[in-house]
Specification:
589 residues; Rossmann fold; 19 helices; single chain; 17 strands; 13% strand; elongated; seven-stranded parallel β-sheet
Length: 589
């Protein structure tokens, strides 16, 4: 740490001082010998050197990113880094730029110079940046300030922090600091609502929350004026032809591993969009899955041909032409970090800054039609609860509990597919997950949706031996997912877990605390992530208020203690309130 202000840096009087010698303006002396020509191939978007075979052969030896099987020809991808390499080569072997391509060459050299200046500036800037007050309302940890500085200093890059380290908040801090509005955020479908809530929570423009528009449907329409647009990946193909005209300065691809496969309409649309944006950021804790070569597709979206073309990438980084298995992944990772393309921190690296438990409330999408269909069956009971004066207080309380339970079940069912999408992302990122729910019907949906991960189950329906087998299988690494009923967690010791996920909620804070502490026990050395996945409506809205999930008191409520009699009585009170809210929502008279 230094005593100097974190954002202080004296910019050089002349930007040329930041340029390497080979990128500074050069003039070819009259009559100087040239060794060939340089031209631009618009179809392949490559610079083509044609001339003396000794020169083109040297190009192929010196620059792995070059290609060209013809004698006397070498092709350089049009990336600004490769343009800089060409400028270096031309100091020794001057080339004659074809007259028709001279404007394109001058533009390319200018971009290469601006890129070099930005890279050198990033090296000289302080490692941490504070977001501006008034525009960003969050509080960043020190490693998140480093992430913000990285994003501000690199216009096309990948933030690859492990899940739970705050990639979303770092990105929003970047949008706020550089006023990168309008911005377009592209998340998976189940995270669109959460992004909207986070934008409204952390950003302030002219003292007001930002205007956020959720793009809907595959058919393009005239978008309203907004500061932030949110469009999930499944819509990209429908909007492909309209993306170039969108009035956005910055695009953020959340969970950018969604673009690890090229050749799809989704990938093509994302590529077109990224090409026309000033800033392009990718976020992912798991940018590579089965094959290391998938990183080429991801990086190609962020910064076209940063890793050269596919042929040269597989030749130099993988096991041969067209092979997608990276020979030395560590070297490739080091290269991406060194060149300012990727920043990745793991929980282990920043553990000293993290609290023992981190609780995150994440709003997911849900299927409101399924919820409405399931709740239709309760209309007669709702009418009876509201209008039957013959009901005793005890009978009315029992009926209220039944209606409330059915609404909670309907909410759990309606959001179950989106909960499973979220859990898949955790598991694919290497997390060990405890997934809690309440209703058997919801657990059955989890079992079907997540069967590829061979989960274990403790739901109260298993024998004692089956319960022990499920615990042993999770603790010994036979599965990374254990699904547990909220009120069946007592006595379990599951410290292998790195994440606790609540797919359903309980009225009692102590129930959640007990569930969390199945993982947060002696032997748990990591910072435990506890995700509370909530639907935008249904029973979750009422239960969030009851639990204090929207306010800071949530942490103090979550004490490690048994459920008290007062809390049991409070649950009955909340059930009555819940029924009253349902009546309002369904407009039953």
């Amino acid at each position: 740490m230094t005593d100097e202000p974190q954002n202080s840096w004296e910019e050089p009087e002349d930007e040329e001082e930041l340029l390497p010698l080979y990128l500074r303006p050069q003039e070819l002396p009259p009559g100087a010998r040239t060794y060939g020509t340089l031209s631009w191939n618009r179809r392949t978007r490559c610079w083509v050197v044609q001339g003396d075979p000794s020169v083109t052969e040297m190009c192929k030896r010196l620059f792995p990113g070059t290609s060209g099987s013809r004698r006397g020809e070498a092709r350089f991808t049009g990336h600004r880094r490769m343009v800089a390499e060409l400028c270096w080569l031309m100091l020794r072997f001057p080339l004659q730029v074809r007259m028709r391509d001279l404007p394109q060459w001058e533009k390319a050299v200018d971009e290469a110079r601006r890129y070099a200046i930005r890279q050198e500036t990033a090296l000289r800037m302080p490692p941490r940046t504070e977001p501006p007050e008034g525009v960003f309302s969050g509080k960043l940890m020190e490693f998140q300030k480093e992430g913000l500085a990285f994003l501000l200093n690199h216009d096309r890059c990948l933030l690859a922090d492990e899940m739970g380290l705050g990639k979303t908040v770092q990105t929003l801090a970047c949008l706020a600091t550089d006023r990168l509005f309008p911005a377009l955020i592209i998340p998976p479908p189940h995270l669109t609502r959460n992004w909207r809530e986070e934008c409204l929570r952390f950003l302030r423009l002219n003292g007001q929350p930002p205007r956020v528009h959720l793009v809907t449907g595959l058919k393009p329409y005239a978008l309203p004026e907004a500061d932030i647009y949110i469009m999930h990946y499944l819509l990209l193909r429908g909007w492909k032809e309209a993306l170039e005209a969108l009035p956005v300065r910055c695009v953020v691809f959340d969970e950018v591993q969604e673009l690890r496969h090229s050749g799809t309409e989704k990938y093509s649309a994302a590529s077109l969009l990224a090409e026309h944006c000033e800033r392009v950021y990718g976020l992912s804790g798991t940018p590579i899955y089965n094959r290391g070569g998938e990183i080429w597709n991801v990086i190609n979206i962020l910064d076209y041909h940063f890793l050269g073309d596919w042929e040269s990438f597989t030749r130099e980084w993988c096991y041969g032409y067209g092979n997608a298995i990276v020979a030395k992944p560590d070297l490739l990772g080091d290269y991406l970090r060194r060149e300012g393309m990727m920043l990745r921190r793991t929980k282990e690296q920043v553990l000293i800054e993290l609290p023992p438990k981190r609780r995150l409330v994440q709003e997911l999408d849900w299927n409101d039609r399924i919820y409405a269909r399931l709740m239709e069956q309760m209309i007669p009971k709702l009418k009876r609860w509201q209008g039957d004066e013959a009901l005793t207080p005890g009978e009315k309380a029992i009926l209220a509990e039944e209606i409330s339970q059915r609404a909670r079940q309907a909410t759990g069912v309606a959001k179950a597919p989106y909960v499973c999408q979220f859990v898949r992302a955790l598991l694919d990122g290497g997390e060990k997950v405890l997934l809690f729910a309440h209703h058997h019907e919801v657990m059955d949906l989890y079992k079907e949706e997540l069967k590829a991960y061979h989960p274990g189950f403790i739901t109260g329906r298993e024998t004692g031996a089956a319960k022990e087998r499920a615990v042993s299988r999770f603790m010994e690494g036979g599965t990374d997912l254990l699904c547990i009923s909220l009120r069946a967690a007592s006595g379990l010791n599951l410290q292998r877990a790195s994440c606790v996920v609540f797919g359903e909620l309980d009225w009692s804070p102590a129930v959640h605390s007990q569930a969390e502490d199945r993982a947060h026990r002696i032997g748990q050395k990591d910072s435990l992530l506890c995700y509370y996945l909530v639907a935008p409506a249904g029973s979750d809205a009422v239960m969030q208020e009851a639990l204090g999930l929207k306010v800071s008191q949530f942490v103090s409520l979550m004490g490690d203690r048994p459920v008290s009699q007062e809390e049991t009585e409070a649950g009955a009170h909340f059930a009555r309130q819940h029924v009253e809210r349902i009546l309002q929502q369904m407009e039953i008279n």
